[in-house]
Amino acid sequence: MQTYVKEYYEWQHDGTLSSAKEIVPFVLEYIQPQSVIDVGCGLGAWLSVFQEYGVQQIFGVDGAHIDPSMLKIPQNRFSAVDLEKPFHSNAKFDLVVSLEVAEHLPVASARTFIDSLVKLGPAVLFSAAIPFQGGLNHINEQWPEFWARYFLKHGYEAVDCIRKRIWDNKNVEWWYAQNMLIFAKRDDILNNPVLKKEYENTHVSQLSLVHPRQYLGYIQSNRTAGHEDRSLSAKG
Predict the structure, then answer these.
(1) Start-to-end Cα distance in the chain
(2) pLDDT tens for residues 49-107?
(3) Would you say 215 and 178 are in contact if contact means Cβ atoms under 8 Å apart?
(4) What value, to the nearest 5°, has the Cα angle with vertex 12 and ends 7 and 13?
(5) How far is CA 146 from CA 18, 123, 125, 152, in A?
(6) What letter does residue 215 receive in the DSSP assignment?
(7) What are the pLDDT digits (tens) for 103-119?
(8) What is the residue-wise DSSP string for 110-177?
(9) Strand-pair partners of 72
(10) DSSP state of 83
(11) What is the 8-class DSSP label of residue 61?
(12) What angle do CA 45, 47, 49 make, to 5 degrees?
C-alpha cells in the first residue's frame, strides 16, 4: 500500500472523529460489544470513541506506515500487519470494524481480507468505496454486493440499519453514510430483536447507493474538466 504522510492523517482525523461520534451510539443500539477490533484503524479515532462509550477492550491493526506516536489509542493496543495477506488474532472480538479500507487492497486480496475479518468476530461493521468514488490509492472500488457475496460465503448477511440514520447528517462524512453496513451470522441476527427487525427491512438487491454529496461533486468536477478541455481546444 502507498505510504501515507503525516499531513494526510491529520487532515482525515477530524472528519473521521466527528463521524464516529455520531455513528457509534447507533451501532451500540444494535450490538452491545465488550470488545472491538478495528482493521485498518488509521490513528484509532473509531476505537477512541468506542472507548468513550465504555468499551474497554479495544485493539487496532493497520499497515506499518502508521506512526505509533500519532495514535489516539494506547500504542500497546495497536499492531502493524500486512492487510494484503491473511491475518489472524488469538483473541476474538464482539465487533469487528473495517471502514473504507478494502478499496485500498488489490482485487486478489479481497477474498482473503473478508476471510480474515469474519474469523475475528461474529459481527462486522463494514464500508468500502464504490466505483468512481475516488480517493487516495483506491485500487479496488466495488459495489456493496461484491463484498456481500464474500461475507455470505461465511454465512454473514447484510443488515442495512445505519445509513438511513446518518444520511443527512452533515457531521458524518458522506462515504460512511453511503457505504456502511453491518454483516452478521443469520442466527445471531434472528436472536437479536432489534437487529432482526432491520434485517427484515434490508433489501440485498438495493445495497448500492450513491450519496448526493458524492454524485454532485463528481458531476461538477467532470463539468469543470470538460469546460477546461473545451477552452484549451478553442485556444488551440
Answers:
(1) 40
(2) 999 999 999 999 999 989 999 999 999 999 999 999 999 899 999 999 999 999 999 99
(3) no
(4) 100
(5) 28, 18, 16, 10
(6) H
(7) 999 999 999 999 999 99
(8) HHHHHHHHHHH-SEEEEE-PPTT---TT------HHHHHHHHHTTTEEEE--SHHHHTT-TTS-HHHH
(9) none
(10) T
(11) E
(12) 75
Q: Provide the strand spans (E) within 19-139.
A: 35-39, 57-62, 78-80, 95-99, 123-127
Task: For residue 186, give the C-alpha cell.
Answer: 443469520
- The 10 Å Cβ neighbour count of residue 133 is 20
Cα 56 to chain centroid distance, Å, stands at 21
Task: Give me the amino acid identity at 186.
Answer: R
| Strands 78-80, 57-62: pairing kind | parallel
Task: Name the grid cell of 192.
Answer: 437479536
What letter would DSSP give residue 4? Answer: P
Q: Which residue matches cell numbers 482473503?
A: 112
Per-residue pLDDT band for 140 (boundaries 50, 70, 90) equals very high
Q: What angle do CA 124, 128, 134 make, to 5 degrees?
A: 165
Beta strand 123-127 with 181-185 is antiparallel
Q: Which residue has the cell 430483536?
A: 193
What average pLDDT does the segment 169-177 reach? 96
Position of cell 443488515? 159
Above 90 in pLDDT, residue 39?
Answer: yes
Q: Is the CB of residue 157 less than 8 Å from the CB of residue 181?
A: no
What type of residue sits at position 43? Answer: L
Q: What is the dihedral of CA 62, 68, 69, 75, to 10 degrees?
A: 110
